[in-house]
Amino acid sequence: MLPRFLGFVLVSAGLASFVPGVAQAGPEARCAMCHEFHSDVNRVGPSLKGVFGRKAGTAKGFAYMFTKYVKGEPWAWDEAHLRAWMDDARQAIKDFTGNPQARTRMPALHVRGADADAVIAFLKQLK
User: Fold this and answer.
1) What pLDDT, in 10s, does the model give residues 75-86?
2) Residue 65: inside a domain, yes or no?
3) Which end of the chain is more exposed for a tag (fewer CB within 10 A), N or C?
4) Bridge partners of residue 55, in order along the sequence
5) Distance CA 30, CA 27 (A)
């Protein structure tokens, strides 16, 4: 089994399909390193179970210490917000909040086009 950090690097670099031990495949593989999909367990990032349509910053039990700018925002995770976030979360948080100082630990993943479509379809079915 790969160390967690090495797995993250490989998945982030798009190399997961070439390395044994990285189980998640498809465009959502990048999400799997920091997010849980099928339970309310939070990891480095909040659980993505039920994220589509959920009000920003309201994942049950997630502290939002490093993404405090998301907590209390009036918007929900719809297609437009998810697309911007998956492309470049660091710019998206500034755009969403109107605060040029807003920060997040989420890296810019540049998930776009058909890959973004596939991730959004995947997230929509997580209930």
Assistant:
1) 999 999 999 999
2) yes
3) C
4) 76
5) 7
